[in-house]
Amino acid sequence: MPSYRRSYLGLLGILLTASSGLLHAGENQVEGKSATTPVTMEPLASAVVPDTIEARVAACAACHGKHGEGIRKNEYFPRLAGKPADYLYNQLQNFRAGRRTAPQMVYMVKYLSDSYLKEIAQYYAAMNPPYPPPLNPAPSPAALTRGEALANKGDQSKQIPACTSCHGTALTGMQPAIPGVVGLYSDYIAQQLSAWRSGQRKSKSPDCMALIASRLEPTDIAAVAGWLAFQTAPQHAQPAAPSKQKLPLDCGSVAQSN
Amino acid sequence: MNKARYLLALACLAVTLAGCGKQSSGSTESKQHSTKAEDVARGEYLAQAGDCVACHTARGGEPFAGGFALASPFGTIYSPNITPDNDTGIGKWTADDFWRALHEGKSKDGTLLYPAFPFTNYTKVTREDADAIFAYLKSLKPVSQLNRENELRFPYNQRELLTGWRTLYFKAGEYQNDPKQSAEWNRGAYLVEGLGHCSACHTSRNLLGAERTDDQYSGGLIPVQNWFAPSLTSNKETGLGDWDVRDIADLLKTGVSSRGAVYGPMAEVVQHSLQHLTDQDINAMAVYLKSVPRKDQAPEIVQVEALMRQGASLYETYCTDCHRADGEGVAHIYPTLANNQSITMETSVNPIRMVLNGGFPPSTATNPRPYGMPPFAHELSDQQVAAVVTYIRKSWNNQGSAVTPAEVSAARGVPID
ipTM for the complex? Predict the structure, then answer.
């Protein structure tokens, strides 16, 4: 539908031009003064707005929680807290580069610098709020059995490695760039695996999770997501230390941080 | 106006439409369909209540032979042939297969159907009624007409996405009677929520094209067509709050009433579907619709004063922490809204999209770590966004015009690139 495409592009153009006006309202004032006053390298913090990373990224808290604990209402906003900083940094870059497509995340990070994204990632990686209790109801016994098998043993016949082989024996992630997968909601996990399977979510190549997701049946996705979400996360869980063994698959997002 | 175009609300909004993703299942046993005249007749009636013919008939084509094109911003999908032709239709389907399609949104071979087929509503239909509809479809003359491939753009052509979508937004289950309500009310609810699939157009949708459960029947813009399906809530200004049950029944059955006439897509619904229903069923639907609660929000297209009152309240809740009660914001950190030209320009799309999507200003040399604004698309309905944007466009010394929920709805699905 080319006409639609065109009108959307037109709207986008308007948005870009005008939102920069909107967002730069404060900076324009700085520029206005610059003829007589040197521009400071960083805007002066107002007396009423703290110059802290917490205040600067307060917008993130609206969906991800004040301490990165995740989930608001029934939506599927994931926990960020305690995930390895490189993992979070990779995801922020992925949103900015189009490898991940959730529109609201793209709007958030599209114009932010690497150094700021890294700082944001480190901020949430250092958080450690309690994990929520697992959601009820329990998946069916058959789904739990399959989910547990996939998580702890994988499925050799389909060349699916166990989740634990990369995400840590306690599934709390592994430094420096592999996220924990406990303490998340099944909706979120299932959506991510489905998105990898369809190519909607991507990671840096080689995209190990895309390969794994392509080997999962939809029923496997539901089973492993249900089992993971049903586990009680260890309190104060931390990502495991980097593995000395080779990972079962090559992962661009892990290699890139080495 | 064609009902099928009407249904493209689904097509457009969703990561959706009539196709399929692989999943295991398929029919193992075959339940024989009924050929009794009374079942076939009842099935015909129920198929009318579901308005099946509208989407399953191409303009000028054989009834129920499919091929109707549902155009959407994501591409075009084509409805399938549901005549009992063995090779191109549902001739080889069993009653169990048909039940699975209605109840679970899965095709005979287990592939997942796009929710352009309103299985999120049809799942509420009883097995008995599904069997009757199937008996009727099997009684039709088979038409040999191949189904046409959908023409959806990536990623909407990826059927696997439906797995995640269904996890989030679909729960199979027949309609359950509410024992606190009358038999008439329950019959109406069954028809409105099930076969009637009224919510498909009269409820707004979220970013993934699923109906907003917190906003049921508050009205919604039908994309591409740009018809606004009005509120069915008890809102006095825009909904049915000021309507008599008689007026509602008249409108559904006859297309006209003392309160006005149907037009656009609803005219087609009345023509093909509702006018054929019994007075008893129409009255039941009217009774149920009349009972849809008023939402705790102002009318959708209202006097500016009401919007401003609601907007002021929302502004205080969501905006003052950063933008301040006087709209001045905090210099360099939170943009001023008072006397900001990008707020009051003639088109309101920019402030609407900022409220929906939020965002951070760019990292620059002088402002490398900007403060950001959260998105409110998940938090606020179209109506609420319209109210708060109206408020900021008209407060302090701003001289902007009021904003309608339809404008907000139109801004929700705009692609990023």
Answer: 0.70
